[in-house]
Each structure stands twice: as C-alpha cells, then as structure tokens.
Amino acid sequence: MLSSLRRNARVGLREIALALALALSSASASEPTAPLRATPDGRPLVLSFSDEFNTFRRFDGRSGVWRTTYGDGTQEGLDRRSLPTNGELELYVDPDVLGLNPFTIRDGILEITAQPTPPDLRWRLNNYAYMSGIITTQPSFSQTYGYFEIRAKLPAGKGLWPAFWLLPADQTWPPEIDVLEVLGDNTAKLYTTVHYGKNNTSKGIDNIVPDMSAAFHTYAVEWTTSQLRMIYDGQTCLIDTWKTGSSQPFDQPFFIALTQALGIGTNQFDPAGTPLPAATTVDYVRAWQWQPRTCRLTRAKARKRRLTRACAKRKPKHKKCKTRWRLIVNATKLCMQARTATQAAALRPLRGADARRRHRRACCDHCRRGRRRRSECHGDGRARRRSLRCVSAASAARSCWSR
Q1: Which of 23, 24, 30, 181 could form a disulfide with 215 if both were Cys (CB 3.0 to 4.6 A apart)?
Q2: Number of domains forming the structure of the chain
Q3: Is the same domain home to 6 and 50?
C-alpha cells in the first residue's frame, strides 16, 4: 500500500514537472531573443542572414530581399501565385497585382494576411475567392548547410495552412525541407517533413506541442553534411540522417520560403467556421553558417608537408649530388625537430660548408615565401650565425621552419 502511494506520488510529480516545463517554454518563447552564437547542442554559428522586419524589403527586380511569388520572376501572369495541385484556394498577391497588399509591418512584426478577394476583382484574378501572401529569398539568399530559424505566432481556424520551408536554389523539386507546417484546425500539432527522391519519398512526424496560436514560438532546422534536425523551442522534433561521401539531394543551396495558404485535404477552408482576415505573425527570420574550426596542429602538419614536397622537387639526378641531397634532407629534418638553438647548432657541423650553403638557400626561399627579408635571417655575413638564425633567432619555436 505504501509503495503504491509512493509510486502515485512520483507519477504526480512527473506530470507537474512536465506541465511546468511546458509553461516555462511557452513563456520564454514569447520573449524576443538575440541572434544565436551556438546551436542548442553547443556548436558555434556565424550569422549569415537576418530580417527583423523593421521594414518590408520586397524585391523589385534590382534590390530588396523577398520575392512575393514562386519561381525566379521570369514567369508572367498568375501561374506562379498559387499551387492548385495542393488543393490551395488562395492566390498570392502583392502591390503589383491590382495594388493588393497582404503584407503589413507593425512594431517590427510582419503580418501575412489571408482574406477574401474583393468581389469586383475576382474575375481579374482567375476567380480565386481568397488572397494571401508568400515571401521567398530566392533572388537574394540561399545557403548549403547551417541553422535556419523563424519566430512566429500562427493563426487558428479550419482551412488555414501556414508553412516555413526550404527549397533548392536551382528550382528543382524534390527535395524540400518543411521546417514548419500547421493545419489551422489543430494548432497544437506541428508537422515537420523532409521530401527527397524521384518518387517524392518523405519522412515526417506529427509533434504535439503547446498551442502555437497563443504565443510566439521558434522553429528551426539544423542542417549538416549528414543530418537534418528539426527543432521547436530548442527541443528536437525530427532527425533524418544519410551517408556522406556521395551526392545527396540536400548537398546544394536552398532558399527560404514562408507562406500563408488556405485549404488542404481534410483541412478544407470553411468560411462559416473560420473568420477572415487571419494572419501569420513573424518576428524574425534568421540563418547561420557553421563557424569553421581551426586546428594549429593541423596547420603545422600541412606546413611541414608542403616543405617536404618542396624539398623533394629539388632532388638531383646525379649520384654525387644525390648523396649530398640526402645529407641535406636528413639534416633539415633534424633541424625541424630541434627544440633549442643549442641542439640545432650541435647538429650543423656534421653537414659541411657546401651542405650549409644548400640549406641556407632553401631556408631563404622559405623566408621569402613567408614575406621575410633575407637580411633578417642572414644579414651578418657569417656562415654559422646565418645557419643559426635560419633555425632559430631566439628559440626553435620562432624559427623559419616552424612558422
């Protein structure tokens, strides 16, 4: 009896802790954040794209960020302003279409509004009953790998279909990365999906999360050479991995797309149950690149490898010269391994005057590649000090060979 009470108490505490965690995550998601310096798992990032929506920078053919149609802008008419094959009911408009504008900026927040088409204009818009907006970075920004994030508050209502996704810069399809898709009849279910392959193979998952229409939340994708990881408010939702070393559909630049569509499948728009206008509210869209990691040891090994190859190119063909060349190479290797000027000086008398001259000539070539003047290494005119300064002016760690 006592053990069952303890077990029930533990279960109750777990439920309370989970509820508190969700409440705290929702509260923190409603607060704006500064650009990241690292991913949630700690990998360093460098900001490559950011729009805080202080103004709406629509691409006008010469400047700007956001294109407000599908495609690359070369298509004419209304063909690239909807996807009827998806069962969509809206037409994506902008001020170039009869002065209709679904985009509004208020206090650094972008609103993409879906609303009914004015009755007197429907005949000019292919009889589309509803109009909305799309924005893409196709003309201004695309990137291979990195971290992409949006902070947004989504509308609720049957038939509403906001999405944040990535598409290939070369306009092929698939692949496609759906970071965020929500059907308005259930704003507590987040769809994250990856499309690839000739037959449109897809991998996705439905995530039960706090109501996405009640507050702002962050949606992100972490994209590497072998993995895609979908993230909601810092928590992983979906992981898709593949083998590296061969051509993959995600090894190419992708651009950002954000849409507010109407109607799909069982989420068909119901004008009686979903009041319009309804808007997707966006705080920011950001992208980062992976910060390159440098390794001094790797650079040192690469430098030694280049020096060894440069020395091998000077290998003579005559037997007598080959013997001297071997002595020079062996002595050079010993000099590179020397840790003090005393050790280096003790090794040099074994090579002879001719070997010292050859070593000095090779060292001077290296100094010139390192943009050092010859006089800095060999300005005193004495053979011993010339050779000594080649290996170390103060210590072997600051020598020409180790630089």
Answers
A1: 30
A2: 3
A3: no
